[in-house]
């Protein structure tokens, strides 16, 4: 079904605007209405003012002037006594009627709907309701007042139900039975009061199954469009009950022949069946008793009433319906995409689950942070950034002294930091990030090839089946293949199978401002903060808002689908800068923010104008300009003052065109200039009713935020340089007495000595699990193990069965101790009798440089030589295709070459001390086989070759280095060394060229 859109004659870019709900169009008032209003005013004046005035003047105070005594009770009853008693009764009746008038007047003026019931009022409140209704019939408040307000006289004369309310209501309990015993003249009115009382006493309980109320979707008034959320808010008292209306009317034929398939897609003139407790003046209509509507509308409602049945039963109050929410009033609304046929969520087992989501049965055991487990894109970004930070620390430490330098082994996290790291390993979905990045860049490249601009994207949905749905601000034609149109013209969809066929393209990231907000029905929403035409406000408790802000900031700072961006943070309690110092910056206050963004806005407007682009999107197509149009996203956690909010609103008015986005926190939810409004609840729900969103929010609570920041801080090479040099996590006995029971060779082709090869298909899994445990002697969390072996998820019983097979395969030591056991934290650890060649390599180097070899030259030379012999190639060479994907999370691929280079450098220095240049060259050549990119090895090779005195050999080595460097040229340090050792090397290279 095509989406209803709003025309934009001004030509400006459309954008959602939250507005206070406006009253819907009302019928014009007649002379009779004014006569009724005047008579009602006179009647109210007489009853409210005339009655007490007459009583006070004619009768006076009816009660005794003093406390009653025994003599007073024994006095003779006179006519005055009867009059005083009747006067008291009249005063009480007047007080009750006055209370009824006040209650009805308050309800009418506030537009809340059905007023509160005054106890024991009965017909008195009904009379007050009719008089107030008639009085206000010519005013603006009557349109949203209780049923029957405009039917003064008709209801009293004809004993009929209100013409715009539902007819028959069957009310539970004995209240209705009592009312049915009353006179026929007041039966309908009392039945309505009984229903009201049942609704109020039941805490808002829903009406009976026989309710037949209807509502007709109103045409737009200005830029205000009707929505199911507003209908539910006005007539059911709670906008979140829109799902009941949706289920009552889903897939039923409307007067124009179309059907309601999404809660967000409704059209003027459609008929909606309402739950029985719906209230609200002229907006709810009966099929057969609606004299105020035309015969055509009566016929449409009657025809629609006959289409009820299955849909009505499915949508009974109390049942949770589907749908995605109410439509935003001004623009295309963020709605849940439809799944492709045959691609539902039935997938399971090892291959059908989004990586990072807990598999069936896993639950929340082992105490890992659930917020990180349920945030696969955020976890992948953090894990990738953490790996880069650790590699950076390793390479920076490589500039230190050879032997015993800090940084070879990064600090092992403990406590909350260790749990956070495990949660990142379990929850991360790097493949999902890779496919998202490839898909978006591929789309940008295809559009550029067709000379088409990038469409404005409000949101992206990542389905549980791996499909990607982009929701556009407005229809933009057919997408380039392999993209397809989705459920309507504003959805572009890419199947996961098509995304996997994409290859890297050299184009700028088109939508770097996408950030995860949460999930709805197994689909993950990424909102494009950069595209919002104004401010996005976030209301809720401060601690709840902080979790959303931290999650958004962390994902934007580390995501893998952007090139560069600036993220400005204001009002954050925790400093997130260590996550991405090049992207994140903190400002002290809102004043500094306004000053900064005014300058940024002016600069960007000028740059776009000079480049001839109307927005950053057009600047990102064509020749890639990866840095020029990078987004600037502002996250303001502190609530601005009204004056500052106005300034920010003015800056944000043109922000989407300039690539600037604003997310601003507010306690009240009423922020001037807010284009989209969201609310985070204490239950972790992210609500945006006017966008149709009710998400399970993605959060990064303060405790987990601190743990993640600790991981990055400990990995910072500039942090606490005075820390002692860390010892390798596991040192083995390298003497003859330390022969292990199980020995695995990982440096080169994978081999295991001391165990029989397992039979069957599980052999590869057992080998992989053992390799993971050998590379993590500190222990491996069971969920980390399962996510490494089954990236798309697996159930607990499958994981536990594999652990038991692995335990049985490894066996036990002679004293009966199992070689695989769990420590106090539940992490799986190997016994010391299970050793790898990498453990031996580390132990030999440590003993040579910091142990016995530090005081004995002969021991150092022997240990370094033995260590270099162990190097047979890269780690886990010839590993099976498609397995060991978890190695991408590790830094062993950087640690091992550095370790081999350190051994080669130490052995070379050992030989050069005795002028054995050839032995030094032999050691360096062996190390270069595993670490060919280490500049230090080439420098030492140049020095060793120079020590041989063979200038021709040195020239050949220099020419080889120049050839290897290619177009990039030699590094400056290498050039400086060649200038020192071979001053004529440049002319020799030129002659060879």
From TrEMBL:
<dbReference type="InterPro" id="IPR011990">
    <property type="entry name" value="TPR-like_helical_dom_sf"/>
</dbReference>
<dbReference type="GO" id="GO:0000160">
    <property type="term" value="P:phosphorelay signal transduction system"/>
</dbReference>
<keyword id="KW-0472">Membrane</keyword>
<dbReference type="InterPro" id="IPR052196">
    <property type="entry name" value="Bact_Kbp"/>
</dbReference>
<feature type="region of interest" description="Disordered">
    <location>
        <begin position="1"/>
        <end position="27"/>
    </location>
</feature>
<feature type="transmembrane region" description="Helical">
    <location>
        <begin position="126"/>
        <end position="145"/>
    </location>
</feature>
<dbReference type="InterPro" id="IPR005158">
    <property type="entry name" value="BTAD"/>
</dbReference>
<keyword id="KW-0812">Transmembrane</keyword>
<feature type="compositionally biased region" description="Gly residues">
    <location>
        <begin position="345"/>
        <end position="354"/>
    </location>
</feature>
<keyword id="KW-1133">Transmembrane helix</keyword>
<feature type="transmembrane region" description="Helical">
    <location>
        <begin position="81"/>
        <end position="105"/>
    </location>
</feature>
<keyword id="KW-0902">Two-component regulatory system</keyword>
<feature type="compositionally biased region" description="Low complexity">
    <location>
        <begin position="1"/>
        <end position="21"/>
    </location>
</feature>
<protein>
    <recommendedName>
        <fullName>Bacterial transcriptional activator domain-containing protein</fullName>
    </recommendedName>
</protein>
<feature type="region of interest" description="Disordered">
    <location>
        <begin position="271"/>
        <end position="364"/>
    </location>
</feature>
<feature type="domain" description="Bacterial transcriptional activator">
    <location>
        <begin position="836"/>
        <end position="982"/>
    </location>
</feature>
<feature type="compositionally biased region" description="Low complexity">
    <location>
        <begin position="355"/>
        <end position="364"/>
    </location>
</feature>
<dbReference type="Pfam" id="PF03704">
    <property type="entry name" value="BTAD"/>
</dbReference>
<feature type="transmembrane region" description="Helical">
    <location>
        <begin position="37"/>
        <end position="61"/>
    </location>
</feature>
